[in-house]
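Problem 12. The chain below contains 133 residues. Write out its predicted structure in token notation.
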Amino acid sequence: MRQLSIGRRALGIAVLAALGAAMSGTAVRADDVAGIWLRDTGASKVKFAPCGGALCGTLAWIKPGTDTPAKVGQKVFFDMKPTGPDAWSGSAFNPEDGKTYAGKMTLSGGTLTTQGCAMGGLICKSSTWTRSN
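Solution.
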């Protein structure tokens, strides 16, 4: 009996340690991405912020004169959860075609790369973003 209780205690401590590490890692990485990012085309800005235990990206600005069905305030990235150091996956909404795709994001220094993929990742489109004020 004594061995069983020690084993359970060790397992419980290991589980708590893993949960703590996962939670602290998520918060740090989310803070790195939080803020406003300008798309490489200069046509839009997205604000990334924590939402419901994940990250979401909402259109914060659209360049005047840009012909697009997108609207400021529209959520275009959602349920983005950490998949590794400076990497997330979730969903990406494309206002141009009204479809939602498998989304990925990676952060490298001051550059954020987002990707939307269809057909199990066979067809993907990427955009590069830089921090904006």
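Discussion. The chain has one helix and eight strands. Students who got a different answer should revisit the alignment rule from Section 12.3.
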